[in-house]
Amino acid sequence: MNENVLLKEGGYMFYFRCGLYMVGLLIFSYGISVTIKVQHLGLAPWDVLNVGLYEKLGFSIGTWTIAISVLLICVSFILDKSYIKAGTFVNAFAVGAFVDFYLWLDFLPPTTYAWPDVFTILLGIVLMGFGGGVYNAAHLGAGPRDGFMLSISDKSGISIGKVRIMTESSVLIFGLLLGGPVFVITFIFTFIQSPLFQFSYLSFSKLVDQLTIKNNENKKLARHTG
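-> structure tokens emitted (226 positions)
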């Protein structure tokens, strides 16, 4: 088998991981948009901040998502740039753009200000947890928020869990002061989303690993028989 074919085979996994990454971002962003639609029930801390900035200063929610992400990347770059990869920049701009696009399309469950909204926000949380696990399983770079917290943990020696609690608590307080939507769901968001994230991350990471091993075996076989 000639070298060009081998290179093409080697690229299959890269394209697969890129596709998986984008699908995960699309699902994750749609989940954010769904929760924003019923924000009177509360939002995740970072989204409380983005909505609060939007309501106080204008622009769009997606624009603030991008701005905060870029700021976090800059801080991470100073602290520990090892967490910054190409996927980190894609994440920073794609999530904000997708959220604005979904909200503009309004292809979302209607807001009823009644009990159906509970199912709507639970759907959004499920999509965020699942989508977040999927795009992280592609291993193309930590998201801006994750990279930021990981870099702080590495530099300070504080556990990732404690850094996450301190960071999200600070973000939540700041978002609340800006008038962001904080309610019951805000305080149980992580407890619902995290297990779903872990399940989808582990499941798709296993799939990626299996396909990578199979792809490498095929490449070795091709070299010996080519």
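The mean pLDDT is 87.
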